[in-house]
Amino acid sequence: MGSTSPAPASLPPDFQWGFATASYQIEGAVNEDGRGKSIWDTFCHLKPTRTKGANGDVACDHYHRYEEDFDLLTKYGAKAYRFSISWSRIIPDGGRGDDVNEQGIAFYNRLIDSLLSRGIVPWVTLYHWDLPQTLHDRYGGWLNVEESQLDFERYARICYERFGDRVKNWITLNEPWIVSIFGYSTGGNAPGRSSVNPQSSEGNSATEPWIVGKALILSHARAVALYNKEFRSIQNGRIGISLNGDFFEPWDAQDERDREAAERRMEFHIGWFANPVCLAQDYPKCMREQLGDRLPKFTDSEFTLLREANMDFYGMNYYTSQFARHRDESPSINDYLGNLEELQENKEGVSVGEPSGVHWLRSTPKLFRKHLTRVYRKYGKPIYVTENGCPCPGEEKMTVTEAVNDTYRVRYFEDHIEAVALARSEDGSDIKGYFAWSLMDNLEWSDGYGVRFGATFTNYDTLERTPKQSALLLKGMFEKYTEPRKYL
Ligand code: PNW
């Protein structure tokens, strides 16, 4: 027998893959079947506009077209589909004493049953940013740590009770970092509170994001602890959270201060949430040092709750990476980065990756592999990549005929899936699934309908859907790593 070569990069046969979406970005039908308003309905209708004139009133009209959309999933060969539930369709006023809306339950039952009949595994996010407006008006929403966690726990209970016989994969929150920082520091997302944004009339960027962060952590923890105590043994599912966060390299690799800044940036991005939710530990030290008393403390009983909230997986939303350069001055009171600058080029002028169709995203697959392995080693949970994707350069202005030829996205997916396979096979990181963002072009929040992240083209005049090449090629990209390999 000849020499043995290293095992080729591979993915296990039960690797989950598919596409992801979120309720407000695709559903539309905002006034139908008893749905209550969310903070995104309000935010999208503010004047002057803060969402480039766009709103989710119709969006992709997925509420009425879900069968057609699931036909696409079938055509693409997806094994799994990640979607989110609109809290205010289930409980229009959101609170633990408020009524459940049976028509909202019925809609999500239709989605779940349709997916299962097609052999597609549903992955359900409980909260993808659409807080019931009533809770915001009633007590300040996520600014009220004590009230919001109890209302979220009750909402989670209803979802487990009504859907948990068929839904075995739960994600509590999508990107609590974006919820806290964009919603309460920069004010770019709903509810748009900020003391530094001229468009915001209310808010305190120095304090509110850190309070909201704690409310989200404890809400997540209550939902997981409840699942563990009352549902896990009967329903036998999995539960986790989806955290965003870029990988950071030092701007000047020779400078110790930049190396520390890169690590600090990741602690402010990911450790903020991952320390408490994965490790039942306090916030990272560097956050305490910089933020002092503005960073809320956890009480002993809250630490007990965090320990009871042991979860199954880390959901990773990954789009891009950056360089971090330290600052010599002391941080502003509104700083949330860790006192540093974020840059897309390093000291030598080398770009972190190839530019996409949106300024904040460059394609960085090698750093994705580093990121996967760093997160796996630090937080010790199996990883599901719950979002990864991009808009192609110039796609915003393309016709459908041009847009379906999405070679940049095809390469982006290929390179990032290869990074997953390498992180598994070569680094030993346990990665169990991958969801492309997104099934179709949809409402890109404050960027409106211009930026297109879809693997399917959406014509917003006719609501016609057209598969892009990447959607049709994704299956083969996974098979390349999962097929039994032939000897050469
Ligand atoms: C995610 N950033 O948000 C969200 O989960 C999706 O709903 C969204 O459509 C998708 O990514 C694409 O943007 C992010 O500026 C938004 O770094 C912005 C950033 C990261 C994630």
UniProtKB/TrEMBL annotation:
The keyword Transmembrane helix does not apply. It comes from the Eukaryota. InterPro entries: GH (IPR017853), GH_1_N_CS (IPR033132), Glyco_hydro_1 (IPR001360). Keywords: Glycosidase, Hydrolase. It catalyses: Hydrolysis of terminal, non-reducing beta-D-glucosyl residues with release of beta-D-glucose. SUPFAM superfamilies: (Trans)glycosidases. It holds the Pfam family Glyco_hydro_1. One of its GO terms (biological process) is cellulose catabolic process. One of its GO terms (molecular function) is cellobiose glucosidase activity. Its EC number is 3.2.1.21. It is an enzyme of class 3 (hydrolase). The keyword Hydrolase applies. Belongs to the glycosyl hydrolase 1 family. PANTHER family: GLYCOSYL HYDROLASE, LP05116P. Plays an important role in cellulose degradation. Shows hydrolytic activity against several glycosidic compounds. This is beta-glucosidase. It comes from Talaromyces amestolkiae.
